[in-house]
Every structure is written in C-alpha cells, then in structure tokens.
Amino acid sequence: MSYKLLKLNSGNTIPSIGLGCYDIPLNQTVKVVYEACKVGYRHFDTAVLYGNEQEVINGISQFLSENPSVPRSEFFYTTKIWNSQQGAKQTQNAIEKMLSQIDQGNLQYIDLLLLHSPLPGKTKRLESYGVMQEYVEKGKIKNIGVSNYGQHHIEELLNWNKLKIKPSVNQIEISPWCMRQEIAQWCLKNDIQVEAYAPLTHGYKLEKQEPEFKKIMEKYNKSPAQILIKWSRQKGYIPLPKTKTLSRLQENIDIDDFELTKDEIEVIDQPDVHDPTDWECLDAP
Asked: Which residues of the sequence carry a binding annotation for substrate (predicted)?
C-alpha cells in the first residue's frame, strides 16, 4: 500500500488513512498495532480516554526495532488531552506523562496532539492550547489541533490574541449518515485538515445497506467498509477506521485500485440523515 501524504498547515505531512485505536482490547492492542505496521499502516490515533497509549507506542516501537531500515519519520502518532486534563497546569502534567510514555518506546516525539473536546469551556481550552503551543516550540510535539470542535470554537481560537500556531486538524465524526458537511468544508477552506473518526459507524451500518449501495460494492468487488473509507477519502477527509480483527487491517487500506464516480458518491451521501454513533458536542458553548 502506498500512502498518500497530505500537507498540514504546519508544513508537515500526515498519512491519508489512520488506524483508530479506540476500544481495542488492551491485551490485543500491541499486536493489532504491530500487525498494522506490517501491512502498511503508518498513522495511529489514540487518546488518554482510550487507556491504551502505551500499548500503541509499544506496537509501533516493536516494529521499528525489528525494521531498522524504516525511519521513525514515516510514522504519525496522535493522542489527545482529555476533558479533565484541560487547564494550564493539568495540560502540562498530562503532556509530561505522555512524553514519559514516548520515552519508554522509541518514538521520540508526538506527531499530533489534540484537545479531545471543547466541553471544559473557553478558559480551560485556551489555557490548554497555550501550553500545547509551548511544547511545539520545544520540539516535543510536531503538530497540534482539536477534536469535536464546532466552527465557533475554532473561530474563538483563531481570534485569540495568544495564538501562535493554527490548529492543523479538527477530528470529528463523519460518515454518510453523519456528514457534517458545513463544518467539514469550512475547516478545509480554512486550511485545517478534517480527520473522520467512526467512518465505519462502529459497525452499526455495515450490514444494512440499501440495494444501490450494494450495487456499488458488487461493481468494484469491495466490502462496505472499503466503500465507506474510499467515500471519506474522496470527500477530502482523513478516515480513521478502527478494527481489532487482524484480517481486516489489510482490507481497510486496500482502496487505491478504484474511484467512486460523482453519481456513486451522491448515492452514498445521506445529507438528510444525522445519526451520530458517538457524542455530540460541536454546539457546546
């Protein structure tokens, strides 16, 4: 699999598909991540909330140790500051712990650190972002951004008089049944990449496809997951499909041998449906 790399507003690049590591059983995480590295994944998304940061680091580190010809720079490791860790001192403590986890592996730095949500409120989220900026300046974090942010949250940040580093990413739930077109297109127009989490709807929609969707699957001989991941990519997003099933790791990134037509994308689109499978906080104050 040859990864397409997308340019972030920081000047760095990000692989165009990542492995979402939410809810992978802790005793399987190292193996899943390691096997993902073997089949070609180079982008891994975890969070403090997921409780498996060290296991994700260890899986990547194991692969790097066994493959010294593969440079660390090929990999992209993302984690997130949880709500209870927002606020200046709390975020500093959280980042120091994250860096100690990195030191136990051989990743050396964090590629992307996100604020997991805007829910702690304006004061705390701006304090946290300020601390994140400081660690970018120290070279320990390469890129920073946000998750589950609505347009007004990002505008608040862009208008902040202490902003030094524009958020490079907004990670939000996106699928054909939760399209979030307005915020997604606004982010892209403002040079903020959109990461699409739960692009496979946590599996809820995979077995219940309409006949027209099934025709598209049959035409390209692809699974519903592959069609959904391709849909997300062609929309200009960075999908983060999650699987704990080793046999599906390869399948989920084998999407470069077909292109959906404009008409097929319109068939898959469900603009009149809003059915998120996860939390809803883009409208939070």
From this structure: 116
Total domains in the chain come to 1
Residue 105 included in any domain: yes
Q: Look at residue 284 and tell me if it is in a domain.
A: no
Q: Are strands 5-7 and 13-15 parallel, antiparallel or unpaired?
A: antiparallel
Task: Show pLDDT as tens, one digit a residue, over the chain (285 residues).
Answer: 456 999 999 999 999 999 999 999 999 999 999 999 999 999 999 999 999 999 999 999 999 999 999 999 999 999 999 999 999 999 999 999 999 999 988 899 999 999 999 999 999 999 999 999 999 999 999 999 999 999 999 999 999 999 999 999 999 999 999 999 999 999 999 999 999 999 998 887 777 678 899 999 999 999 999 999 999 999 999 999 999 999 999 999 999 999 999 999 999 999 999 999 988 999 999
* Residue 116 is labelled as binding a ligand: yes
Catalytic residue among 41, 50, 135, 149: 50
| 50 a catalytic residue | yes
Q: How many Å is the Cα radius of gyration of the chain?
A: 18
- Predicted TM-score of the model (pTM): 0.96
* 204 part of a folded domain: yes
Check: CB of residue 39 under 8 Å from CB of residue 249: yes
3-state helix, strand, coil in the chain (%, to 5): 45, 15, 40
Q: Give the CATH number of the domain where residue 143 resides.
A: 3.20.20.100
Is-contact 187 193, C-beta < 8 A? yes
Angle at 18 between CA 16 and CA 24, to 5 degrees: 170
- Give the C-alpha distances (Å, rounded to integers) separating 120 from 25, 49, 102, 158, 166: 28, 15, 26, 18, 20
Domain of residue 202 covers 5-268
Cα(266)–Cα(285) distance, integer angstroms: 33
175 within some domain: yes
For residues 110 and 284, give the distance between their C-alpha atoms in angstroms, rounded to a whole number.
28
